[in-house]
Amino acid sequence: xxxxxxxxxxxxxxxxxxxxxxxxxxxxxxxxxxxxxxxxxxxxxxxxxxxxxxxxxxxxxxxxxxxxxxxxxxxxxxxxxxxxxxxxxxxxxxxxxxxxxxxxxxxxxxxxxxxxxxxxxxxxxxxxxxxxxxxxxxxxxxxxxxxxxxxxxxxxxxxxxxxxxxxxxxxxxxxxxxxxxxxxxxxxxxxxxxxxxxxxxxxxxxxxxxxxxxxxxxxxxxxxxxxxxxxxxxxxxxxxxxxxxxxxxxxxxxxxxxx
Length: 259
Description:
Structural class: mainly alpha
CATH class of the domain at 163-259: Mainly Alpha
Distance between the termini: 145 Å
Number of helices: 14
Shape: elongated
């Protein structure tokens, strides 16, 4: 290597090396800040993901409970309903239908009766389902609910509200085993101006009197019906009435033989 080549190499190296004394100290701070951001950004993302997962798991239930209760106290019922619905999803395995009922009540108070009905069904609160159906004018649907879920007291009340005293009496007689209440309702049905209803009520009264061990009253009620049925051929067109008459006749005949 000659001297010219060595000199050229030294000059080139000197020009390529930065003069650190001339670098602005503020640039170091900027570089450090950017470095910290790039280092911490993945940690922030991971923390956010973990927080979201925790909030939407049973661990987040206390937060949603506080938010729901706060909204309910402020009478912000629809917002409370949304949060109780979320709580139901988180806690259904541990607390059953507690929050489904609260969501339903919040929906009802908030005026959203359709969603309230859906949430009462989810909560298995069939009494409230039937009640809301009645309030909405859907009597037949309410009756089916009370029948399907074995709620005879509600069923009887439903019949009473619609003045269907024959059916109310049957519920008291056969499902609630309350013969006194059955008697009261059959007597009210016997006040009907409709002769078929009157005769059905009298036959049912005869059956109740037989169970109450009042044979004279039972025979009297049955005899009154029999006289009217025999006096007109029109009753031959009422097979249900004739079948009930036969049932009561047989029942009273058995009672007479036992005596």
